[in-house]
Amino acid sequence: MFKKIAKFLNDVQVELSKVAWPSRSELINSTMIVAVVSILFTIFIFGVDNLLAWIMQLFI
Hints:
The protein has two helices and no strands.
C-alpha cells in the first residue's frame, strides 16, 4: 500500500513538472480580466433584474 502511495506522489511530482506556470505579470493580468468581466456581468444581471421587476410592477 505504501508503494502505491509513493508511486502516486512521484507521478504527481512528474506531472507538475510538466505544467507551464504563468509568470507573475500574466497571473495579475488574467486576474484583472476575470475581476472586470465579473463586475460587468454582475452589473448587467442587476440591470436586467431591475428592468424585469419594473416591467412586472406595471402589470400587477
